[in-house]
Amino acid sequence: HEQGFGDALQFCRYLRQVKERGGWVTLSTRQELVSLLERVDGVDAVVVQSDELDSNDYDLYVPLLSLPLIFGTTVRSIPASVSYLSACEERKCHWRERIDQESAAGTLRVGLLWAGSRYGWNDYQRSSALEEWLALREVPGVSYFSLQMGAAAAQAAGCCKEWPIIDLGKDIQDFADTAALVENLDLVITVDTALAHVAGGLGKEVWLLLPVLADWRWLESGETTAWYPQIRLFRQEVSGGWAGAIQRVAEELVQRTTK
Fold this sequence. Notes:
The chain is α/β, with parallel strands linked by helices and 259 residues long. The chain contains ten helices and eight strands. A six-stranded parallel beta sheet has the order 5-4-3-6-7-8, with helices on both faces. It has a two-stranded parallel ribbon with strand order 1-2. The mean pLDDT is 93.
């Protein structure tokens, strides 16, 4: 594991190819990811990242983000043809019951996340405020679920009278919970955070809101990404301004719910 949660979630897809080269594969990662990543194909063991690993136990070490280079990855050879993450069935059942109880019958079930960790180096660019998303409240036939965690989650309470959003973020324990929850949604709409990689790795439909200066993995333009074929990109038109991108999201949602 190196860098952020999203990086580990994006590049663990290469572990299957590592295993195919032979040997015992141990993944060292953050505690919050262990329960989810121990289900990834190609992993024999998952341990919590620390400085206590005995170098005598391993023949080779490699950072996850070095694997694309080792395997000679190009845009055309990114391993993105199958879902490489999976959710625990027991947890999926738990969240299914919760979402069934909280959503209106026959509605599109949409998960929202509008802000990343404030400790991220580019958080001032990628994060938004929930009040900037109010155009979505006018879309009929949608049940909205907040997957937001951290300080930004409190913004949902401030909008609850104008826009009822069901808060699930407070009950998420780890990334395995996130995956199980997402499996019970029809669509995830998020800014550039680890949630996009969870949902993308599960093969779920994601609409990803990006700043003008997007992270390298999303390239400089385009509405699609070779990393996740089912992710659609909605880019800012003006740096710091989310109104245009969110309005396009709202228009696309209307088309989805009125078909």
